Amino acid sequence: MKNRVIIGGQWGDEGKGKIVDSLSAQFDWVARYQGGANAGHTIMRGDEKVVLHLVPSGLLHDGVKGLLGGGMVVDPWALKEEIIELEQRGFSIRDRLVISSNTHLILPFHKRIDELAEDKLTRKSIGTTGRGIGPAYMDKVARSGLRMGDLLLPPENLERKVIEKILAANEILASMYDADPLPSASIAQELVVLADIFRPMITSSYEVLAGVRNGSESIMFEGAQGVLLDIDHGSFPFVTSSSPTIAGAISGTGLPPRCMHEITGIFKAYCTRVGNGPFPTEILADEGEELRSLGGEFGATTGRPRRCGWFDLLAARYAVDINGMTGVVITKLDVLDSFSTIKVAVEYDCNGEPTKMFQTGTDVLPACKPIYKEFAGWEKPTTACRTLADLPANARKYLEFLEEELGTHIIGVSVGRGAEDMVWTPEGVIT
Ligand code: GDP
Ligand code: IMO
Ligand code: MG
Asked: For residues 303 and 195, which has the higher predicted lDDT (pLDDT)?
């Protein structure tokens, strides 16, 4: 069985959760490799909606084992809540989930600093999810963060370490933000209690992934966020603090590139972005509102309305190229069913200079004006389609154009929220 990496190709929320759910039942492992509870991955089980923030989406299938990789930042309070909620809904999690001892912890002051830093930036705020992601990665890079492995310490040592950390954070809260201190002793005690829950799950990912390295076990890597939010390759500074791209899958699990056989990008048939930052193909008029309401474009984590726009071919080709995607899935095609015209950005006008190269420069991207190619819509429902032949001719023309321009196969087209609402096209859409 070929291992597969699932990567969000745009600004997140492409429908990764649904696709991971559709493709993961046969894998031995599903691993998250970066990010934290800023992610919100939605899966429909009949009419029931499950939104996962930290637990890998593949764990909704019995028999699949889950890994929270060392590249993640995990809020133990949020993880406990998510596990309990899933178990109450009938999914066994604790016996199938392992956590790398290298995974960094998000503590309450990270979330507090995340909120306060956003307030301070005001006009230039990033519009983070407020989950403490940036400050936790700052602690990691500063080599001062606490890790899951610390929860294995004797309780008194853990307590001391947490108190020291919170006292240091309280100084930052006071000096930089004029904010009240957090109660170090009670937080440390809560963490000692949480450590009892997580101790049996914390492990060396090097050890547990031996079967993946020798080829006796298979793995799916579940990316969170998307390429354009990558700390290195995204629209900096309006990005997240981790690496959703292929490099993150390597460093965030410790598995070598030879374990990554298929690299599958997930792209919406249009584009959305939640939070601030440049978005060349954003539609500010009524059509944007129409996409938002037809696509239900509200954040799965924060409930914020997502900004909506047309498919950006330059950005998508960039995502395919820098990750070496071996195939892509196009989701939410059905959301375009009622549009009479569908646009795709095929070029940018950057200060009078035409370009087909995606630009990530802080000052360049906001100045880029998209040049569109227009397609006649299909104006027919697609949700019941299950084969390429079922899709309206104009929908096929649109998909064929994307496949040709992206230079890689479209291996699936999602036409509705349900797991069954899929047209699988392993040989691509150009026949
Ligand atoms: P993720 O973060 O990439 O997993 O995506 P989210 O779950 O945040 O957002 C995707 C939203 O689109 C969810 O509400 C999904 O249920 C929904 N969705 C996924 N695929 C389709 C599709 O093909 N059609 C429609 N209409 N909705 C979809
Ligand atoms: P999934 O996995 C969409 C965005 C935030 C903000 C920026 C930085 O569901 O696709 P952060 O809290 O990470 O410091 O915020 O990144 N963002 C996402 N947008 N989907 C996500 O995850 C996101 N996770 C973070 O809105 O603009
Ligand atoms: Mg999401």
From this structure: 195
